[in-house]
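User: Fold this; tokens only.

Assistant: Input:
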Amino acid sequence: MSSEQEQRAHDPKATEQMMDSEKHVKRNPHPDFKSVEASRPDWTEDDKWAFTKTRKPDWKLGDGPNDGGECLKKEHVEIDPTNLAPFSYFQVINHDPPLFIVGYAGGFDKAKDSLRNLSDSGECTLNIISEHYIEAANSTSINAPYGVSEWALSGLHPAKSSVVKADRVKEAVFSIEGKLMETREFESRATPGKKTGVLAIIEGVRFWAREDAINEDRNLIDPAVGVLENAR
């Protein structure tokens, strides 16, 4: 019996709810994404990371937006947040100790695999994505059954950590070994009683930086190596 069949047999209602949620979220709005991708311009290697001036280096206090007020001519559309698709969040919130937050859509009753693993083990690794493995990283968002490893699906390579048991991604320019400090579950405003999200606070206990990305003092990472290029 496959992992998916085992999961359906163990809790068929939860599995059906998960699949219904995927249909509602419409994570991929394109039925045939490959045809959409084929219509786009080819990837370019010419766009490289570079430090530049701001758009308006002579900006002064009180000047407001730097587009001459063009943005003020546009109206805004009000959106009910209960209709937005859920996704995970990640951010740095403190430097001493180094703390990070990760947000998960859904409560503990329907915990995603990453939340379940983090809660059970109290450990994790955080791996910053770069352009050289964006396709593989994106493939790990697949809704695989619990127990199916995304390592094999993505083709990424695990590297041993120093403090935590979880492996880090060898392809990552920068990785963090983390220990779970605490979690907090949130309840829906629109549907009282329904758990809609979980916040995890994680302490970074070891940092890993690729040797060609870090300076001699080991306190600065060169973004041109690829840590931030996925944002372009």
